[in-house]
Structures are given as C-alpha cells and as structure tokens.
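User: Assemble these into one structure.

Assistant: Restating your components, then the assembled model:
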Amino acid sequence: MTALYPETALDRLLVQHEIEQFLYREADLLERREYDAWLDLFTDDLHYYMPVRSNGQAGDDETLDEELALALFDDDKRFLLERVRKLRTGSAWAEEPPSRTVRMVTNVMVGEPDPRTGEFTVSSRFLLSRNRLQDEDEAYAGSRFDRFRRTDRGLRICDRRIMLNQAVVLSKNLGVLF
Amino acid sequence: MGPYGEGGVRPYSEGGVGPHGGGGVGPWPGGDGRTPRHGDAFIDEERTLVDRAVFSDPLLYRRELGRVFARSWLFLAHESQFERPGDFFSTFMGADPVIVTRQRDGGYRVLVNSCRHRGMRVCRHDFGNARAFTCPYHGWSYGIDGSLIAVPEEKAAYGTPLDRSAWSLAAVPRVETYKGLVFGTWDTEIPPLREYLGDMAYYLDVLLDPDGKGTVAAPGVHRWRMRGNWKLAAEQFAGDSYHVLSTHLSAIIAEASLRDDGLNVPTTGFQVAMRGGHGLGGFDAFDYWHTAGFSEEVCEWMAGLADRTERHLGKARARNAVLIHGNVFPNLSMLPIRANLRVWHPKGPDALEVHSWSIVPAEAPPFVRRALLLDYGRHFGPSGTWEQDDSEQWHYSTADSDGFITRGLPLHYRMGYGRPSRTSYPEFPGSIDGLFSEANQRGFYERWSELMAVPHPAETRDESSGADDGAVPAPVRTT
C-alpha cells in the first residue's frame, strides 16, 4: 500500500505546515500585542469559548448545557474587540504594565474537512507563560480546538474552544488572550 | 434597638459631626494601646482611620477564623445546586473545607471534609451525588449525614467496635436557608439567619425574590485565586462606588467606544449602612437595561419583571433605585443588577479564593438567562473586563501592608464622616448616604472590631494567640 494517493499525502503535509505556521504567527502576534492583526485571523461570526473545568465524579464535567452555563470566556468577535480596546486604553490596570508572555503551541492535529462546508477542526496544545511586574509568574496549559474556514480573505478561525487545565483558576485574572 | 441590642454596632447616624481635621498620619497606630490585636481596626477616636495590620498580621488572620468566621452566618450554596438526596457541593467555611449535602428529608447537613482517623479529605469532588463519603486513606466510610457507618477490618483492627457516634464527621450545628441561599454557622448563640441578615434581607429580596418565584443558579461556579486580603474585596462590595471611575476606566472607555449612543454612567446614587456590618449601594433610578445595551427583547422582559416586582415587593424596590453592589457580613458579596453572588474565602492574610455564581429569576426564559449570564461573566467573571482590575488593586494594596513604615500609615476611611443621613429613600431601611461614602466600610470594620475584641473559646488551645498577645478577656457577646 505505498502511496496510492501521493498528491493527497503531499496535500496533507502542506495543510499541516500551513496550519502550524498560522498558529505560530498567531502566537507571535499576541506576544507582540498586535491585536488588530490578531483579530483579523478570526471570522466575524466567531465564537470564542473557554468553559469552566471542575472535578466532577465522572471525570471532567462536560455535560453542562453550555448556552446556559458559566464560562471563563464566551465571546463573539465584537466582545473580543471590546477586550482589545480595553487593553489599549493605558488604564487597563490588570495589564498595565503589560505581561510578558511566551506562547508555545504544539501537538497540532488537523482534522478532515466537513464535506458540506469544507471547514475543518484543528486541535493543539498550548503552554502560555505570563510574567508581570516583579514576581508575578503564571503558567497556563491547555488544549485548543479551532475550526478553520477558507474565506476569500484567506484562512480564518470561526470557532475556538479553549480547555484550560485549571478547575480553580490559579491567577488573579484571565487578563491575557488565549 | 435592632437585633444586635446594646452590644451591637453603634448607630451610624450618631457618627458625630466633629471637626474633620486633616485625617493625617499620626499618631502611630498602637501608641495609645488601641490596635487590631486589642480588637480595634481603627486607630482614632472618630473611628475613621484603619490600621493596616488588619490586612497583613498573621495572628489577626488566625483569630479572624475563630472570632469572625466561626461567629457569623456564612454563605454555602444555592439550593438549585441540589436536586436529590445525596447531592453535595464542596466549599469552605473560613479555612475549613466542608461538604454541603442534601438529606433524604430535603434538608441540608454541612460536614467538615476531614476524616476523623487521619484527617484526609473524604470528598475530593467539587459536586456530585453520593450514598456515602468513603475516605480513600483507610476506608472509613460516612453516611451523607456524616455518621460513621463502616470501618474496614474493625474487629481485627480495634477488637471491640468503635463508638460510632463519637467518630462521625464534624457537622455544622446550624444550617438555615434564606430564599434559596444555604448558610451555616458554628455559633450556637447568634440570632437566626433572618434576624442576622437584618435590614439586608430587604435588599437581598430584589435579587433573590423579585417576583415570588425564586431564582436558580446558572450551572457552574467561577472559582479563582488571587493575592490580597479578603476584607478589601468584601468592604469594596459593601460600599465603594468611588473606585469605579478610576479602577474600571478602561472597561468603561472600551464599552463606550463600541456604542453608537456612547455610555451614560449615572452620577447620583446612595450607600446604605446596616447593623451587623452589612452594606449596599446603588444608583438613583434610570433605564438600566437600555443603557447597558441589552436587546429590546430582554429590556421588554425586564420591564415586565419590574411590574411583577412592584406588585410583589412594592414600588420602592421595583422603581426607585438600581441596586449595584452589596456585602453580607462577613464575606458574601453581590452585584444584584448583574445577577451575581460571590463569596471571598480567606486563604491566609494575603490570599483569597473567589467562588462566584450567576443567579437568575427562575421564571426567566432561556434568552434572558443567557443575556444575564453573559453580562455577568464577560464583565465580572475571572476574565471580566471590570473584574480583572479589582484584583490588581487588592493584590498591591495588601502586598505592602507589613512594611515597617507602611504598617504605621493608617488608611483613610473618612469619606462622608459626620454627614447627616440622607432622606431621599424614606422606604429604605438602614442609614443612607450619598453615592460616594465610606460609611458602609466603617460599619464593616465596626462589626469586625466588635467580634475581634472577644476571644473565641477555642483559642486557648493555641498558646500563641492567647491573652499575652493582646487579647482582652471579655465576656462573649451573644450577638
């Protein structure tokens, strides 16, 4: 069974490379606080979501009705823009002076495209190191599940689900973007 | 006299219209023997300057756990978190881990989450349903009422059976509910919960009982940890409207920048100081729902709710004011208009853990619930555009409270001192002051001082917090 469909394998490799470069560039934009360029990586119908984690009896609690449950982030693009505008005021004290962040993205796995819409899901892992002022030092690890869409403006994320590996958030705020 | 009787918090309207002075630095705290270790948060005769030791002294923190937390009604959970017998929720009372469990008779038992054999936590889940709590260490097993029901290899290990009744999980002696909220207290002598809430119940009803149909908690609890003393958070929610324009400036600017009509932040409002150290504040009536940018659909539903509230609670609470923030002494805070309740669990003198809920009218349709929980979560959850900046203030206000010099610089709590009580809200119980006032914070520290002046009987076991450290022997007040 050697390379029956070599063009498919090559396509996959190219898509894998394209997605990895997309995610690395995204991380770089956030580290450099290039928020307009960052927002531009998302479609206008974006849902940006980080659920609450908990120590339930059946492992993680995944059964909540997400529409009507608390979440750590539950944003549309307009509200992400509001967050970005806040960060730019110069008086967003939780990020003024701003954090120094390092964002590592790894374990990138590209899913099959939906035959109807062409959208595809990418899962990845992240480690976000946040250092601020003198001795504030936080680490956030987790998974992201991004749904990608090819638009006439290029590749965009239309849905992001972030699973932070903390049931009690161990920092005084989630003032950075994931 | 109110429920706190002779020994209660002094009436706020009698603060005295004295010379206001500069409110300057001196005298150094403790110079006249008046210190927090003697049970007084204030260093001055007028009781307007707070000693920073209350935010940093480890001994005071240890005493608080007994003198304040073990002597107050503490919020535990919302009743909608429980459906069936055996449903439980893990939380804290002061620094003690407890399990709130629904019993077969529909009532609640609150158990200390600590095995009587080696002290292991018998329950390490946040919530769930249990037939029993079995300790993972050696397998002692307790019923949902806390009674010891099984001891592995009991005969081989102990010969004769253990006295089961003597080795049950410790249980909180008093558990009561108020309109969906479950509270517990270790104190067998303080008044019943309703009486303890006092005038605060009048305002709590706007959040908990707007239409006679009760509330539900949206699934999930926001929990997060921060540096800072729990009292800074509690006192801010009790009475601080003054911080909003500085602390939350960025959130206001960002929100206004995305609104066609700008954002009209109201400038007139009130603070209410109540007996028992409770405090609450709000704005004079305005069209909150439209101003805050809710959809027409939500605004319409809220207008209907206001009509029902007027019939159920009367016009004053339905129409005359918008309730913004409040605190039930010691550590249950709320943002009524944001459908939010949160509790500040102390984690040492310089750290706290927040547990926060979205509380919505049980009758609210899904689109209203969703609008309310998004409004709360986006602005006042751990990532909230408003909430984030409070954590920065509490962190660094506390961080430097124990420097040699900073420790001697008392903090200024004089705002509104000596100002006569306002009468704009004749129906509202409590002592009313303007939007910018620290009367509520002073009331909070009066209650704190009152409790901290009286040693807890259990303190004698801790040598280092005995009378030699400044405790003033005094009869325990039954307030």
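Chain B touches chain A through 49 residues (CB under 8 Å).
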